[in-house]
Amino acid sequence: MFNAGTVAAKERFTFELGRRMGESLIERLGQKPGAAWLFSSPGRGIKELLKGVADTVGTNVIVGCTTDGEISSSGFSDGSAVLGGIATDRIDFHIAAVNALGRDSEAAGKKLAAALPGSLRYVQIFSDGLTGNGCAILRGAMSQLGEDIPICGGAAADGDRFERTLQFYGSQILSDSVVAIGFSGDFDIGTGVQSGWSPIGIAKSVTRSAGHVVYELDGQPALEVYKRFFGKHVEKLPMVGIEYPLGLISCSDLLDDPDYNILLRASVSMNQDEGSITFAGEIPEGTIVRLTCGDPKCTLEASERAARMALRDLGGSTPAIAFVFSCMARKTVLGRRAHEEIEIIRRAAGLDTPLLGFYSYGEFCPAKRGGPTLLHNETATISVLGFR
After folding, report:
1. Is 362 helix (H, G, I), strand (E, B) or coil?
2. Which pLDDT does position 259 carry in this prediction?
3. I want to staple 264 with a disulfide (CB 3.0 to 4.6 A). Which of 37, 107, 317, 377 is the partner?
């Protein structure tokens, strides 16, 4: 037995709204869920909303976070809340959370994975997108789980504010944290990842970096290189760096389709005194990089490819639910056409397949079957749960 469903609401966040959403989800599933996901825009009343959900759904296996846009079977929405749930006797769910993520993200990832059982076959994580180092979280988690367990999910967002994100764990509201939900049991999983961004400009070498801070490109201060390319628009960092991320060209062998897939890194801040730029993920010294750009057509085509890749990876199993974690930069590039990305994925996954997810500050997904999970930016990542 397997039932999945989603409920979306766009009204003031209250305890009563949480209760109504929980009741609607139970009605849709025909029973109380074994696990529930809540994704919401940042704003007042989130604590009350979560309490209302937790008071109603009949399980403390609840995870989620704040977002830059919500995804459900109803499509794309923002300024809203989305509640999803699964009721099944074929999967066991396990949740864990670790605080103080910014202090040591790798240790947090290791501790998070250690809190989950060894029977896991698939994991989702939702981390603070402002304080955590996504690459380090994955290093820590995979040191415990191995590289063959798919880890998917996204970095929590707070719209385009870049101030404070929230993570949901049971009935608790957390920040500077990472939460996880593990799946064990009888199911198949397929994953797909595509960006659609294309390289522009001249390739350069990262000659000095530390973690996710790049100090020099071709021996010159990174910020000076950006200033020559962007001119006065460099003052619009990080937003201009989100629309024109760095593509890690020399890492393309990690991906299934180097012609279309480039591992991307969006800038999040700059340091005028150091001449450095901080990115949303690590960029090792010696990496060959190029600036990249996206456009609506290529972005939408890539989303469809990601969905088809996930279904192909699923093999002959029948899709039961598709989780979609896409980047806020894609929403920015698409503008009023953002809803088209979700409609395209919905058609590719099958109109009867429930959709659940959000727009994030970073996406977690393996780039190819059997490969390690990577942190992506500017990318559509899709994981489809299915059964034979």
Report:
1. coil
2. 44
3. 377
DSSP string, 340-379: HHHHHHHHHH-TTS-EEEEEESSEEEESSTTSPEEEESS-
For residue 296, whether the previous peptide bond is cis, meaning omega lies within 30 degrees of 0, is no
CA distance 112 to 240: 34
Taking a C-beta distance cutoff of 8 angstroms, is the pair 269, 284 a contact?
Answer: no
Report the C-alpha gap between 329 and 306 in whole angstroms: 16
Q: How many residues does the chain have?
A: 388
Q: What is the pLDDT of residue 261?
A: 66
> Which is nearest to 321 in space by CA: 68, 32, 6?
6
Look up tokens 């990876």; give the residue.
313
Largest CA distance in the chain: 62
Residue 154: which of 3, 37, 309 has the closest Cα? 37
> pLDDT for 224-282, tens place per residue?
998 888 887 777 776 677 778 999 987 755 555 544 468 999 887 889 899 999 888 89
Q: Which of 298, 315, 310 is nearest to 346 (CA)?
A: 310
Q: What is the pLDDT of residues 141-194, one digit of tens each?
A: 999 999 999 999 999 999 988 899 999 999 999 999 999 999 999 999 999 999
Domain ranges of the chain: 2-194+298-387, 198-293
Segments of the chain with pLDDT less than 70: 238-239, 252-261
Q: Using CA atoms of 16, 5, 85, 361 in order, give the dihedral in degrees to the nearest 10.
A: -90
**Residue (of 322, 363, 380) closest to 134 by Cα position:** 363
Neighbours of 236 (CB within 10 A): 12
